[in-house]
Design brief:
Elements lengths: L4 H22 L5 H11 L4 H4 L8 H16 L3 E3 L2 E3 L2 H9 L3 H10 L14 H41 L30 E5 L21 E3 L4 E8 L2 E9 L6 E2 L10 E5 L2 E8 L4 E4 L1
Antiparallel strand pairs: 1-2, 3-6, 4-5, 5-9, 6-7, 6-8, 9-10
Amino acid sequence: MGANTAENTNLRLKAVLDILAEGVWSGATLNAGEVLAEAIGRVPFNDHEAELLSGGIPRGHKTLTSASAKLVKAGWLVKGRSGWTIPEDGLRATVAFPDVSAFAEALDAGTPVPADVPVPTAPPAKAKTKRAATSKKAAAPKAAASKAATAKAATTKAAATSKAAPAAKKAPTRKAPAKAAAAPAVETLPQPDAVAIAGDFNKILGAPEDWAPQYDEAQMEFNPLVQVWTLTADLPAGFYTYKIALNRAWDENYGAFGVRDGANHELNHDGGTVTFTYSHATHDIVTA
């Protein structure tokens, strides 16, 4: 953790790039909220940063979200409707500026990544795992050959035993009727009666007022096959905040990162169609 909010924010910005780079190497996909949550987990809030602002958002979270615009301006981060991605320059920046002081200085000064810095590949641990897998694969034929030899010996012994002993008379058997295949069980999670997106865009959806989970216009639709709730809306470009409220009331509600009574979700929207997807298993939202 840094000495102050400015240092902590720079540490978290660097962590954002590191997390996205790790995702590229491992093939993992994280949405923006998950990336921010992981960055905050690596560099926790101090007491000042943990203070909640008027909208219920921790001061440090608001600062980090705003500061992420510097990564976009530098060309090291791309914010799209499907989530955050790291371009090649962002990957190269993780190598060119490994020290947080150099990283922050380059980010504030607009210093480009040196042209001779290559795009980093997977870390050594990844290559080591690959070598181990190759070694295991090479050993497989030997194991298979040994297994085949054992099976052959057992077969030969069984044949010899069969010759020595008289054949037993086979008793007549009656074939049992085939049973119908049982339908695969579908694991389900008890769901609320209703799930609403209550926020500052409910009037745009046609509701009489904003932040009111009781109206039909704010309700999401449940898909039993995939066990998620969705709502698709056409919103003008802008910055929106909202929460998930269950059963048309505020008694049980979830905010950012699926935290009950947590900070508001945030949406920086370019304008157009957006789909909100809520999972009652995680209590979190994904937008696309």
